[in-house]
Amino acid sequence: MKDILTAIFVTEMRKTTANMYRLGWDERNGGNISYLLDEAEVAEYLDLKKVIREIPTGFDAKPLIGKIFIVTGTGKYFKNVDEDPETNLGIVRIKEDGTTAELLWGFKDGGKFTSEFPAHMMSHMARLSVDPQNRVVMHCHPTNLLAMNYVHELDEAKFTHTLWEMCTECIVVFPDGVGVLPWMLCGTNEIGEATAKKMKDFRVVVWALHGVYGAGKDMDETFGLIETVEKAAEIFMLTAHLPRLNTIKDEDMVKLAEHFGVKYRKDFLRLK
Ligand code: 13P
Ligand code: ZN
Questions:
Q1: Candidates 77, 78, 114: which one to mutate for ligand 1, based on the most atoms within 8 Å of Cβ?
Q2: 227 lines ligand 1 (CB under 6 A)
């Protein structure tokens, strides 16, 4: 059996959490990541018959039965993941009942998965139903995107349009736009269900006055998605109080979307 600390998926979790912390997206225990793993790959590092303990999830995730995820722990700080992955991360498998997580590795101090496990697992179910390649769900509190929530209307068409105007590549990176949920109590099945519903149409979902969820096929793509949205929000926050002299026009966005061959939300443009 190989040493799990040499597994690429553990390295990816260590590097990504460190990067997210460095960028200021994950203060204290803010943020969480879940990453769907390949069973055969995990079997190179762990005896899949050995369950350390069982943790009830409090919701039904039947479509994910048997699936294995590496996930950040609740109350754990992203800044600490790199130095102690076995305490701050865990590898869990959804048991046959669909409502229990079997711990296969990690959460060494008796901890458990993120309090946002419902939103993560429900988002995986939603994304997998529209894109079987989807493996990563990421939540964080990016500074400028959060600031934008306080000064911009929270209408998803208007919010998306403003972000698309801020960087030329935005409409290409998130042509499906940004879904927006109103402020809701976090860590609940309700916000999980609402997030998953949005995730059927969007790979980025803003939790108003809280943060953002991103989903994608791998760690780089998901990170890059949130990074691009946050960059656009930063440009917005740097310019919102200044007179606007220039902008990327809707017809320019159409040119971009067509040139790069992306399927974009035409109804989020205001073409006459
Ligand atoms: P956890 O520490 O439970 O992952 O919660 C952090 C967070 O961002 C809640 O939305
Ligand atoms: Zn949060």
A1: 114
A2: no
Q: Do domains 1-114 and 116-272 have the same CATH topology?
A: yes
C-alpha closest to that of 136 among 240, 218, 239: 218
Q: Has this prediction a pTM greater than 0.85? A: yes
* Beta bridge pairs of residue 133: none
> Which tens digit of pLDDT belongs to each residue from 135-157?
999 999 999 999 999 999 999 99
Closest CA to 28 of 78, 90, 73: 78
Residues carrying an active site annotation: 116
17 lines ligand 1 (CB under 6 A): no
- Classify burial at 96, counting beta carbons within 10 Å of its beta carbon; exposed 0-12, middle 13-18, buried 19 or more: exposed
Tens of pLDDT, residue by residue over 157-179, are 999 999 999 999 999 999 999 99
> Which superfamily is assigned to 1-114 in CATH?
Class II aldolase/adducin N-terminal domain (3.40.225.10)
Q: Name the CATH topology of 116-272.
A: L-fuculose-1-phosphate Aldolase (3.40.225)
Q: Is the CB of 74 under 6 A from ligand 1?
A: yes
Task: Establish whether residue 31 lines the binding site of ligand 1, counting it when its CB lies within 6 angstroms of any ligand atom.
Answer: yes
Measure the CA angle with vertex 228, ends 227 and 230; round to 5°. Answer: 65
Ligand 1, closest atom to CA 210? 10
Question: Looking at the chain, how many residues does it have?
Answer: 272
Listed by start position, the domains of the chain span 1-114, 116-272
Cα 33 to middle of ligand 1, angstroms: 10
Nearest one of 21, 82, 18, 255 to 264, comparing CA atoms: 255
